[in-house]
């Protein structure tokens, strides 16, 4: 799944979301960057997610979650929307993850926690599994397909999740992964040269959107442009590359 450039369908979807947020939000200002960053992590466009597999010994970014698998995963291939029976969770499990792999058909697959993956139809795409909290009394979760012909593989895994704290550099800036508590000053990213590093969260933010007209104007102004931001080491001073924050 190639998300380096925003296609017309995705761009129109973002435009719709921007306008919808402005119309529904009661505060005076609406920031769209949290939605964009969240989508980026789920779709895997260069932002480093806050999930590490402790059992595999993977490195976990500060502020990320240490996720440990509990029990064996179950998987299957489905077409269209499907409700999964969670059954009885293994002892010690606090969350579960769902990994989605697009196989054929164009459309969007959405999960109960708000995460989604867009299947382009002409190529495969894989979601980045995010832990979903187990809720007492709930024994199922649903994958909603926007089109009935979307075929995909879904893998369900029970896990435990342990939160970690952001690290702090000598300048007093926090750095690490975005999480449920917000964003650090320096957000973990992968530079275009393949080097892992950090970009200032303020550089990744869009403008404050106050009304639908401003949302539409911003999208029209950015059309045909690419936003590149510096990538630093954790000190926030040593530049090691660039990160493509957006392409319209």
Summarize the structure.
This protein has 4 helices and 15 strands. With 248 residues, it is α+β, with helices and mostly antiparallel strands.
What does this molecule look like?
This protein has 248 residues and is an alpha+beta fold. It has two domains: 10-49 and 165-247, no CATH class; 65-163, Jelly Rolls (Sandwich). The chain has helices spanning 8-24, 33-43, 201-204, 212-222; strands at 51-53, 65-79, 82-85, 95-104, 107-110, 116-119, 132-133, 140-145, 151-163, 167-168, 174-176, 186-190, 196-200, 226-232, 239-247. The strands form four sheets. The chain has a five-stranded mixed beta sheet, with no helix packed on it. A four-stranded antiparallel beta sheet has the order 3-8-5-6. Helix 1 (8-24) packs antiparallel against helix 4 (212-222). The radius of gyration is 19 Å and the shape is globular. Residues 1-47 and 49-58 have low confidence and may be disordered.
Quick tags:
four-stranded antiparallel beta sheet, Jelly Rolls, 15 strands, globular, alpha+beta, five-stranded mixed beta sheet
């Amino acid at each position: 799944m190639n998300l380096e450039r925003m296609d017309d369908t995705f761009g129109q979807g973002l435009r719709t979301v921007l306008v919808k947020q402005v119309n529904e939000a009661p505060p005076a200002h609406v920031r769209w960057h949290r939605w964009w960053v969240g989508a980026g992590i789920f779709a895997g466009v260069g932002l480093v997610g806050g999930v590490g597999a402790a059992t595999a010994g993977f490195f976990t970014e500060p502020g990320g979650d240490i996720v440990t698998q509990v029990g064996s995963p179950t998987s299957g291939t489905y077409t269209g929307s499907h409700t999964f029976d969670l059954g009885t969770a293994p002892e010690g499990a606090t969350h579960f993850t769902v990994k989605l792999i697009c196989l054929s058909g164009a459309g969007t697959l959405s999960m109960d926690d708000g995460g989604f993956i867009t299947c382009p139809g002409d190529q495969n795409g894989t979601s980045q599994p995010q832990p979903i909290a187990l809720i007492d009394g709930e024994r199922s979760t649903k994958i909603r397909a926007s089109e009935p012909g979307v075929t995909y593989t879904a893998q369900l895994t029970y896990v435990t999740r342990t939160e970690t704290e952001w690290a702090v550099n000598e300048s007093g800036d926090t750095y690490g992964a975005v999480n449920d508590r917000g964003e650090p000053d320096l957000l973990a990213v992968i530079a275009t040269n393949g080097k892992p590093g950090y970009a200032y969260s303020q550089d990744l933010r869009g403008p404050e959107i106050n009304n639908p007209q401003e949302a539409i104007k911003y999208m029209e102004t950015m059309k045909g442009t690419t936003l590149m931001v510096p990538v630093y080491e954790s000190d926030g001073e040593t530049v090691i590359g660039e990160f493509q924050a957006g392409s319209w």
